[in-house]
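Methods — Computational structure assignment.
A single polypeptide chain was analysed. Its primary sequence is given first, followed by the predicted tertiary structure written as C-alpha cells.
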Amino acid sequence: MKNQMIHVFSSLLIGALVSNGQTENPYLKAADQKQLDRDAIAFLDAGESVVQKAAKSTVGIYFGSRRLAYGLVVEDNMIVTKWSEVAVYRGMLKGLASDGKFRSLEVLGGLEEHDVAVLSYTGDSLPVLEFSSKTELEAGDFLLVPRSDGKVATAGVVSVLPRSLRALDKGYLGVSMSRAPGRDPLVVSGVEPRSAAAEAGVRPGDRIVKIGEEDIETFEEMSNLLKSAGAGQDIKLTVQRGRDMKVLNASLKGTNNLMVHGMDRANPRAQKMQHMGLRRLSRGSQNFPNVMQTDLDLNAEDCGAPVLNLKGDVVGMVISRASRIKTYVLPISVIEDLLALAKENE
C-alpha cells in the first residue's frame, strides 16, 4: 500500500510539471491542479542542488545540431552512452558538456547485450562521475534525472527493481487465470503442457492463494511476483483445490512464447497504447538482461542520462523509453562491470 501511495503521489506531482501544465488531471479541481503545478516546480527546483555534481559529468551526444542521447563520463577520456541511439552516426559524433564546449567523440566498443557504447573524447578533461553499486533501492524510491546544464529533466519512482527482460531468463509458470461465475477469487482456467505449473501438479480449477509467503488475490499480484523471479528458480505454490489446501513446488522455466504473464507483445492495439503521447520509443527498447523499471517521463534522446536518488547517489543510467509508462534504467553495477572489463583488456 505504501508503494502504491507513492506511485499515485508521484504521478500527480511529477505529471504536473512534465506536462508543463498543458494536460489537466480530470480528477482534480482547477485550484488543486494549480497548487499541484506549483508543488511540482518547487520539488524539481529543490532537486537541482542534488544533481549539480552528476550534471557536470553528463555530456550531450550530438550529430550536427541534433542531440541523439546523453553520455556519462566514467573514466578519464571515457564516456558511456546508449549504443543503438548513436550507432548510425559513429565517426560523426560530438559531445557538448556543461562547460559549453564541444568535443570530438570516437566509438571504442561496448556491450551489445546491454545496448551500451563506450566512447573516447578529445579536448579538455571533464569531471569523472562518482558512483557506487552499494547504494540500495526499494520499489517506490524517488529518482531524479539531470540534464548536462544542471537542470532536472524529470523525476519519478522505482517501479520494479532490477531484473532480466529476456524471455528465457524470466520465471514462467504456465497458467491462464479467470474468474469463476459467481465467485470473486481468480482460478486456474488452463495449464500449459510441460510447463512449470504442469510439472508441479497445478490443475484447472485450482485457486493459487500464495506464492512463497505472499498472499495472491489478483492476477496482477501473481504476475508481479513472477516477474521478480528468474527461470530455474524454485517457488512454493499454495493452492486451494475444492476444500483442500495443497502446497506444490514449481521450478520456473523461461519461455519464447509471445504470451508472457498475460501480455500479448504482438497485439497491435496494445502496442499502439504503449506509444500513445510519445514521439517515438527508444531503439533497442526491450530484451535487456538487467534493468530497473521506472515511471520516469523522458524522451528517447534522453537515454544515457544519469539517474540519481534524492541523496544525489548515481544509481543508474537511462537505457530505454520503452512505453508511455515505462522507462528502463541500467543499474550502475553494469557500468562498473563494463569498466572492470575494459581495464582487463588494456
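Note: The chain is about 25% helix and 35% strand.
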